[in-house]
Amino acid sequence: MNKTIVAISTPLGKGAISIVRMSGKDALKIALKFFSCANKIEPRKMLLGNFDLGQVKEKCMMAYFKAPHSFTGEDIVEFQLHGGVAVTRMLQEKLLQGGAVLAQPGEFSKRAFENGKISLDEAESIVDEINSESEGEVKSVLSASSGKLFEKIKALQESLTELLAQIEVSMDYPEEDEYEDVRETVFQKLKECKKQLQEILQNAEQARFIKNGIKIALVGKANVGKSSLLNALVGENKAIVTSTEGTTRDVVEASLDYNGIRMNFYDTAGIRESQNEIEKIGIEKSKKMLDEADLVLIVYDGSEKLNKNDENIKKIIKKPFISVINKQDKKRSIEKQENEICVSALSKQNIEQLKEKIFQTIIKKKIDFNGVVVTNERQLQHLKNASSQVDNIFKEKDQSLEILSMLIKKVWNELGKITGETENEDIISMIFSKFCVGK
After folding, report:
1. Residue 267's beta-bridge partner residues?
2. Per-residue pLDDT tens over the stretch 210-260
3. DSSP for 128-162, written as a single string
4. Which of 40, 60, 352, 377 has its CA 20 to 30 A from that of 54?
5. 324 and 190 in one domain?
6. Residue of 132 and 239 predicted with greater confidence
7. Does 101 lie in the same domain as 35?
């Protein structure tokens, strides 16, 4: 029997309110050992009363949610009290003395899952929503928490369950013609399964930028204005700007949220031949950053012609890039560059256009948040595993139905690691519900 758990649900610190909640069959019983009010206790009503802390009483609000109509599916009691570390801990300590036990990390959500209130992917989306850092990330998490992924994967599992049922019947009552018909049906259904998995994964490839943001490296020879450009892009002085070459010795990071996507900029040391040991280390870090970036901004001084350093930098770029011609406020001397945009970091000219160009270069199509958007790494890995397992079945297509059945069960179980349903007990039930065995 689950014990009644208690936890402080808001960050500890000074604030307007703190929330402490309990979940379990004794939640109300424990609460009423300490809380009293003039009103009758009714579910889903916020009641003002006093909580007995011993020598003093805390005026607070209490809400009672009766099972199964609560987040966890159990009785829940929540207290809203004045924000403060000491008083919040005192209230929790009283509830522990009253018979509750301290909740483990994630235990409220775990109970919600165990009681069928949320699916496994919805449970994970709670953590992802808390950790979201951009508008796009929030949208993707809310898309996941709406249950669309669960519905999609559950439908695929049901299709595979039906396939397994057909195979079982075919093996129990073998007739040569029907045997081949079943094989044909198996691979038709698997082809459709593969197609749906690929659609989800292709959308996820684009959507990964929602979760991780876009890594953008600013590179160029020394003193072309990379640091000034970084400051102009993020709207604050993140990087030191001087007229002295080689000032940037380490990678300087800064971020901004643009169209719901987090853009992470990395201002790197000017790449050139140098004898200075510290500067050389910075240059090596710049080259490493080029390998990790999703996009490179090659920054040029538009008032100067290309030189050997500019040409050498272009040669080492292996990622998608934008040629940023800086110092547009001066007379142009540089030759036309591939995929260029002219800006002035000093006067902020065309900075917004550069942000849009970055966005359009990486986000090649609009992400449909009304569809299935997967950014959770664990879920993505299971989807990739399931897709690979379907590929393996096609490689083994000449195997017996018994072997194919085993391989299909692997796909079913892999998908179940997303929905939380990884057992195959319902296959036998499906056999009896879909087929007339006595035929």
Report:
1. 218, 252
2. 767 889 989 888 778 888 899 999 887 654 444 444 444 456 788 888 887
3. HHHH--SHHHHHHHHHHHTTHHHHHHHHHHHHHHH
4. 40
5. no
6. 132
7. yes
Q: Which two three-digit tokens encode residue 302?
A: 């538009």
**Which secondary-structure segment (H or E) carries 10?**
none
Cβ-in-10-Å burial (0-12, 13-18, 19+) of 221 comes to: buried
In a domain, 239, yes or no: yes
Do 88 and 220 share a domain, yes or no?
Answer: no
In this structure, what token pair is assigned to residue 173? 């009552």
Q: Which helix (H) or strand (E) holds 325?
A: strand 321-326
Q: Are residues 226 and 199 in the same domain?
A: no
> Residue 40: inside a domain, yes or no?
yes
Are 204 and 236 within one domain? no
Q: What is the pLDDT of residues 281-322, one digit of tens each?
A: 445 666 677 778 889 999 999 999 988 888 888 887 888 999
> Per-residue DSSP letters for 263-292?
EEEEE-PPPS----HHHHHHHHHHHHHHHH
Kindly state whether residues 317 and 187 are assigned to the same domain. no
Half-sphere exposure of 124 (CA within 13 A, CB side): 20
| Domain that residue 289 falls in | 212-362
Q: CA-based Rg of the chain, rounded to a whole angstrom?
A: 30
Residue 383 lies in a domain: yes
Q: How many CB atoms lie within 10 A of CB 138?
A: 16
Q: Which residues contact 256 (CB under 8 A, 6 or more apart)?
A: 233, 234, 235, 262, 263, 265, 355
Beta bridge partners of 79: 20, 62
Q: Which of 117, 143, 172 is the last residue of a domain?
A: 117
Task: Count the domains in the chain.
Answer: 3
10 Å Cβ neighbour count for 365?
7
**What CATH code is carried by the domain that includes residue 47?**
3.30.1360.120
Sign of CA dihedral 118, 124, 130, 136: negative
Which residues lie closer than 8 Å to 207 by C-beta, 6 or more apart? 140, 367, 373, 374, 375
> Are 90 and 29 in a shared domain?
yes
**Residues 286, 354: one domain?**
yes
399-415 as b/e, with b when 16 or more CB fall inside 10 Å? eebeebbebbbebbbbb
Q: Which amino acid is at 5?
A: I
- Domain assignment of residue 124, yes or no: no
* Three-state SS sequence of 347-381: CCECHHHHHHHHHHHHCCCCCCCCCCCCCCHHHHH
